[in-house]
């Protein structure tokens, strides 16, 4: 049984028809009052990856917030050198979810974009996410599985797990998501009260998605390409984190299970 959100997903093709909004963000054409944009980047020992990420963030982004979770390398120093305008938030609570909460609280712009620090997400795609919001969505999420998207960084077990969890959300929430477990997201900050996650781990991305569905926000998927992490090892554990995602899906749909 769905929760009445079957029409919450705005097809990317519908947004793309609004070519002014989707295509001209980078050039500021057609927007005398372009919404301000904050990019939130959680980091943990990403010193070697930041040179491939921070310089590629579009210059029109108003605010870059780096939330560091007790890195033991030179991540913070590298961030300050590569992006002097960035605000550095030092967060002592472990987990990606905790880092994102700290970043959301620090953000002051109209729009919040989540970007990973490992080089797997292309900062050039930020304009597509912002354009989707300007074109009418409340939240825009990246998908690796619609036309124009793709991935170089997904094992068979992760792909099967993501597919199964995506199908479960489609059944329980009436969504039309094609890619649940991908963290490239953007949303209007005015919806933060409805979206604010309480989870601390990698399940935070799913938590944001299902809360958007429960709040009946207008959601769009846009194509996104996930590259391989450039340096280092991911902290994601497919099986244990997959179970955390499953628990989040069920708990949000049936709170008594929490």
TrEMBL record:
<dbReference type="InterPro" id="IPR050256">
    <property type="entry name" value="Glycosyltransferase_2"/>
</dbReference>
<dbReference type="GO" id="GO:0016740">
    <property type="term" value="F:transferase activity"/>
</dbReference>
<feature type="domain" description="Glycosyltransferase 2-like">
    <location>
        <begin position="38"/>
        <end position="190"/>
    </location>
</feature>
<keyword id="KW-0808">Transferase</keyword>
<dbReference type="Pfam" id="PF00535">
    <property type="entry name" value="Glycos_transf_2"/>
</dbReference>
<protein>
    <submittedName>
        <fullName>Glycosyl transferase</fullName>
    </submittedName>
</protein>
<dbReference type="InterPro" id="IPR029044">
    <property type="entry name" value="Nucleotide-diphossugar_trans"/>
</dbReference>
<dbReference type="InterPro" id="IPR001173">
    <property type="entry name" value="Glyco_trans_2-like"/>
</dbReference>
């Amino acid at each position: 049984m769905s929760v009445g959100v079957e029409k919450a997903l705005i097809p990317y093709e519908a947004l793309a028809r609004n070519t002014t909004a989707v295509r001209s963000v980078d050039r500021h054409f057609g927007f005398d009052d372009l919404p301000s944009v904050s990019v939130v980047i959680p980091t943990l020992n990403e010193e070697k990856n930041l040179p491939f990420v921070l310089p590629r963030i579009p210059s029109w982004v108003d605010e870059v917030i780096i939330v560091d979770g007790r890195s033991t390398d030179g991540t913070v120093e590298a961030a300050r050198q590569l992006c002097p305008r960035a605000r550095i938030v030092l967060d002592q609570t472990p987990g990606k979810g905790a880092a994102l909460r700290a970043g959301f609280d620090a953000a002051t712009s109209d729009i919040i974009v989540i970007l990973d620090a490992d080089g797997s997400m292309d900062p050039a795609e930020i304009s597509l996410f912002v354009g989707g919001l300007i074109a009418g969505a409340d939240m825009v999420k990246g998908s690796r599985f619609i036309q124009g998207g793709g991935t170089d960084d997904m094992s068979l077990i992760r792909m099967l797990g993501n597919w199964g969890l995506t199908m479960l959300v489609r059944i329980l929430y009436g969504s039309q998501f094609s890619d649940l477990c991908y963290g490239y997201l953007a949303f209007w900050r005015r919806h933060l009260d409805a979206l604010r996650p309480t989870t601390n781990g990698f399940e935070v991305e799913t938590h944001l998605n299902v809360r958007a569905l429960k709040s009946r926000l207008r959601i769009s998927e846009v194509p996104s390409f996930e590259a391989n992490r450039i340096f280092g090892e991911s902290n994601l554990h497919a099986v244990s984190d997959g179970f955390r995602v499953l628990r989040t899906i069920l708990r949000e749909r049936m709170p008594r299970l929490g």
